[in-house]
What does this fold into?
Amino acid sequence: MRTPSEKTPQQSTTATSHFARLRQSTVSRTVFAAIAAATLIGTGLAAADATGGNATDTVAVATAEAREEQTQAGRSDDRTEAEASDDATTETTEEETTATKEAEPAAPAPDWVTPSKAPISDVFGPRAWRAGEMHYGADFAAAPGEKNFAAADGVVVQAGSNGGYGISVIIEHEDGITTVYGHHSQLLVSAGDEVKAGDPIGLAGSTGDVTGPHLHFEVHMANGDAVDPIEFLKDQGVKL
Ligand SMILES: [Zn+2]
It folds into this structure.
């Protein structure tokens, strides 16, 4: 069984690249790309309609359109002073916006990450398949041996066998928020360990009250109330 001191930089790198791959494979990213492509094609088609041409090269049309706009913006000779003044105001605002963007520091490490790269297999709420039972977490269809990760920086306050949760981990985070990770086959952390968001904390399994291997993940507010983990993570900017 590993102890935290055996963790190597290579493991951290591996975890990071897992997240990078996860982000690349998310449905929302694909949908975004599809919308972006549709928008570009739409712009090209509209431009082609206006000029009576065809839309075989939408990028070229869009580029030509952009150039024409620039030329028009630069032509101010035959405009009134009021129009020129409006332009000046607009340009100043745009410059300020750009300056603000450039002044922002490089994106810091995310505060919250997904606890598993496996797909979500069950959500928070009443169990559809077991009458009267409430599911206080979200499940990820992690294969046996697949790594589970700390969802945020924190301190491990429980690590080991824990009733229906099987071999589980509880991490306490800032503001008294706690996260629970159930059904491991093996743990990679011990109680008292400090962990960072994305650190591997254990290997998925099927210990405790389960019908198959998966990660059961809960998020509790400081008052102890369990909240919908997926909605919570999305609110923290995590792409799932
Ligand atoms: Zn569950």
